[in-house]
Write a structure and sequence with these properties.
The chain has helices spanning 14-45, 47-58, 60-69, 75-84, 89-119, 126-129, 132-160. By secondary structure, it is mainly α. The protein has one domain.
């Protein structure tokens, strides 16, 4: 049987390359959305976008990290919406880079696990892909980054009461 170290799935640079590639791809889409298709879509969105924009931009970095770390929204939506909400490019780039590291590493781990199963001649199962520890870790990290905006909102609500 072939040793695991010779397997193409054992490469250590995969997470780094995946994070860099995903960050560059997401940033290119963000820039295109912001400068090419952003204005026409903003005009069609109407006044609700302005209200959303004000709240989102107060905590843009935290919100971007939270939605990057919580695999609830499709990746392409997370790339487009900040562009329409006027998020600064550097804020977007930093939050995207940091936010996709855990998710990308989780995907690489899943891929490595599937690769190991396939290398051994086995068949992948849903349990191989959906590890509860990975999902729980991502949700915990998302909650950490959502804490500051939630605390601020609760303080404002108390001050207004």
């Amino acid at each position: 049987m072939e040793q695991r170290t010779n397997s193409p799935y054992a490469r250590r640079d995969r997470p780094v390359l995946a994070v860099i590639g995903a960050t560059l791809g997401a940033t290119l889409l963000f820039i295109a959305a912001r400068f090419v298709i952003g204005d026409p879509l903003r005009a069609r969105a109407g006044p609700w976008l302005k209200r959303m924009e004000a709240g989102f931009n107060q905590n843009a970095f935290s919100y971007l990290l939270a939605i990057r770390l919580t695999p609830v929204f499709p990746f392409w939506i997370v790339n487009l919406v900040p562009a329409f909400l006027g998020v600064k490019a550097w804020t977007y780039l930093a939050a995207t880079f940091i936010g996709i590291i855990p998710v990308t590493c989780a995907f690489v781990l899943v891929g490595d696990g599937l690769g190991a199963v396939l290398d051994a001649g086995g068949a992948p199962t849903l349990g191989t892909v959906l590890d509860a520890r990975v999902i729980a870790a991502l949700l915990a990290i998302a909650m950490i980054f959502l804490t500051p905006p939630i605390v601020r909102a609760l303080r404002r609500r108390r001050a207004g009461s």
